[in-house]
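User: Here's a structure from my thesis project, written as C-alpha coordinates. My advisor, Dr. K., wants to see whether a designed sequence matches the one we expressed. Can you design one independently, without my sequence as a hint?
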Protein backbone atom coordinates (compact mmCIF):
# COMPACT_ATOMS: atom_id res chain seq x y z
CA UNK A 1 0.00 0.00 0.00
CA UNK A 2 1.38 3.42 -0.99
CA UNK A 3 0.74 6.41 1.23
CA UNK A 4 1.09 10.09 0.51
CA UNK A 5 3.79 12.26 2.11
CA UNK A 6 1.00 13.83 4.17
CA UNK A 7 0.18 10.45 5.70
CA UNK A 8 3.77 9.91 6.84
CA UNK A 9 4.25 13.50 7.99
CA UNK A 10 1.02 13.39 9.99
CA UNK A 11 1.79 10.02 11.56
CA UNK A 12 5.38 10.93 12.45
CA UNK A 13 4.14 14.24 13.91
CA UNK A 14 1.48 12.57 16.10
CA UNK A 15 3.92 9.98 17.46
CA UNK A 16 6.56 12.65 17.99
CA UNK A 17 4.07 14.71 20.03
CA UNK A 18 3.25 11.69 22.20
CA UNK A 19 6.94 10.96 22.79
CA UNK A 20 7.83 14.61 23.52
CA UNK A 21 4.85 15.11 25.84
CA UNK A 22 5.94 12.04 27.77
CA UNK A 23 9.59 13.11 28.00
CA UNK A 24 8.90 16.72 28.99
CA UNK A 25 6.06 15.96 31.41
CA UNK A 26 8.47 15.81 34.37
CA UNK A 27 9.43 19.43 33.63
CA UNK A 28 5.78 20.51 33.57
CA UNK A 29 5.52 21.23 29.87
CA UNK A 30 5.19 19.36 26.64
CA UNK A 31 5.03 19.65 22.91
CA UNK A 32 3.18 22.95 23.20
CA UNK A 33 6.04 24.71 24.91
CA UNK A 34 9.38 23.00 24.25
CA UNK A 35 9.78 24.60 20.83
CA UNK A 36 9.35 28.07 22.31
CA UNK A 37 11.64 27.35 25.26
CA UNK A 38 14.35 26.00 22.98
CA UNK A 39 14.14 28.94 20.59
CA UNK A 40 14.24 31.49 23.42
CA UNK A 41 17.32 29.72 24.83
CA UNK A 42 19.10 30.26 21.49
CA UNK A 43 17.84 33.84 21.04
CA UNK A 44 17.54 35.40 24.48
CA UNK A 45 15.95 38.84 24.35
CA UNK A 46 13.73 37.92 21.41
CA UNK A 47 10.29 39.54 21.42
CA UNK A 48 7.12 37.50 21.45
CA UNK A 49 6.21 38.91 18.02
CA UNK A 50 9.58 37.93 16.53
CA UNK A 51 9.26 34.49 18.12
CA UNK A 52 5.90 34.00 16.37
CA UNK A 53 7.35 35.08 13.04
CA UNK A 54 10.46 32.90 13.26
CA UNK A 55 8.51 29.82 14.25
CA UNK A 56 5.63 30.58 11.83
CA UNK A 57 3.16 30.14 14.69
CA UNK A 58 0.23 32.47 15.34
CA UNK A 59 0.48 35.12 18.05
CA UNK A 60 -2.25 33.58 20.25
CA UNK A 61 -0.50 30.20 20.39
CA UNK A 62 2.81 31.90 21.12
CA UNK A 63 1.21 33.96 23.90
CA UNK A 64 -0.22 30.82 25.54
CA UNK A 65 3.11 28.99 25.39
CA UNK A 66 5.01 31.99 26.76
CA UNK A 67 2.46 32.41 29.56
CA UNK A 68 2.87 28.75 30.56
CA UNK A 69 6.68 29.02 30.55
CA UNK A 70 6.50 32.20 32.66
CA UNK A 71 4.13 30.47 35.12
CA UNK A 72 6.63 27.61 35.41
CA UNK A 73 9.37 30.21 36.04
CA UNK A 74 11.45 28.94 33.10
CA UNK A 75 11.38 32.26 31.24
CA UNK A 76 10.76 35.88 32.12
CA UNK A 77 9.25 38.62 30.00
CA UNK A 78 10.93 42.01 30.38
CA UNK A 79 9.31 45.18 29.04
CA UNK A 80 11.34 46.52 26.13
CA UNK A 81 13.51 49.60 26.64
CA UNK A 82 12.81 51.10 23.22
CA UNK A 83 9.22 49.93 22.72
CA UNK A 84 7.29 49.59 25.98
CA UNK A 85 4.62 47.51 24.15
CA UNK A 86 7.13 44.74 23.43
CA UNK A 87 8.38 42.20 25.89
CA UNK A 88 11.79 40.62 25.55
CA UNK A 89 12.03 36.97 26.59
CA UNK A 90 14.86 35.52 28.65
CA UNK A 91 15.57 32.28 30.50
CA UNK A 92 15.31 32.48 34.28
CA UNK A 93 17.85 30.77 36.54
CA UNK A 94 15.42 27.85 36.76
CA UNK A 95 15.18 27.78 32.94
CA UNK A 96 18.97 27.79 32.63
CA UNK A 97 19.14 24.88 35.08
CA UNK A 98 16.87 22.66 32.96
CA UNK A 99 18.42 23.69 29.64
CA UNK A 100 20.93 20.79 29.54
CA UNK A 101 18.10 18.33 30.22
CA UNK A 102 15.93 19.88 27.48
CA UNK A 103 18.77 19.74 24.98
CA UNK A 104 19.50 16.14 25.94
CA UNK A 105 15.87 15.13 25.37
CA UNK A 106 15.86 16.90 21.99
CA UNK A 107 19.10 15.18 20.96
CA UNK A 108 17.71 11.78 22.00
CA UNK A 109 14.55 12.52 20.00
CA UNK A 110 16.58 13.44 16.93
CA UNK A 111 18.69 10.30 17.35
CA UNK A 112 15.52 8.16 17.43
CA UNK A 113 14.24 9.79 14.24
CA UNK A 114 17.60 9.30 12.51
CA UNK A 115 18.17 5.71 13.67
CA UNK A 116 19.25 3.51 10.77
CA UNK A 117 19.94 6.45 8.44
CA UNK A 118 23.33 7.28 6.99
CA UNK A 119 24.53 10.89 7.20
CA UNK A 120 23.75 11.26 3.50
CA UNK A 121 20.21 9.93 3.97
CA UNK A 122 19.61 12.32 6.86
CA UNK A 123 20.83 15.23 4.76
CA UNK A 124 18.68 14.20 1.80
CA UNK A 125 15.56 13.65 3.90
CA UNK A 126 15.92 17.11 5.43
CA UNK A 127 16.40 18.63 1.98
CA UNK A 128 13.27 16.85 0.73
CA UNK A 129 11.19 17.96 3.71
CA UNK A 130 12.47 21.52 3.34
CA UNK A 131 11.42 21.49 -0.32
CA UNK A 132 7.97 20.08 0.58
CA UNK A 133 7.56 22.80 3.21
CA UNK A 134 8.55 25.48 0.72
CA UNK A 135 6.13 24.09 -1.87
CA UNK A 136 3.15 24.01 0.47
CA UNK A 137 4.00 27.40 2.00
CA UNK A 138 4.12 28.98 -1.46
CA UNK A 139 0.80 27.37 -2.35
CA UNK A 140 -0.87 28.58 0.85
CA UNK A 141 0.42 32.13 0.30
CA UNK A 142 -0.83 32.12 -3.30
CA UNK A 143 -4.21 30.81 -2.18
CA UNK A 144 -4.47 33.48 0.52
CA UNK A 145 -3.59 36.28 -1.90
CA UNK A 146 -6.22 35.03 -4.39
CA UNK A 147 -8.86 34.94 -1.67
CA UNK A 148 -7.86 38.20 -0.01
CA UNK A 149 -6.75 36.64 3.27
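Assistant: Designed independently from the structure alone:
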Amino acid sequence: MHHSPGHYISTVYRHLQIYINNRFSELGFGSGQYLFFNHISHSEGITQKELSLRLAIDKATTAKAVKKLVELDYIKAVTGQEDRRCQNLFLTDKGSEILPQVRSILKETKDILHKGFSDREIKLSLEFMDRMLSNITDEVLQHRSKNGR
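When you compare it with your expressed construct, this may help: Residues 131 and 137 are 10 Å apart (CA to CA).
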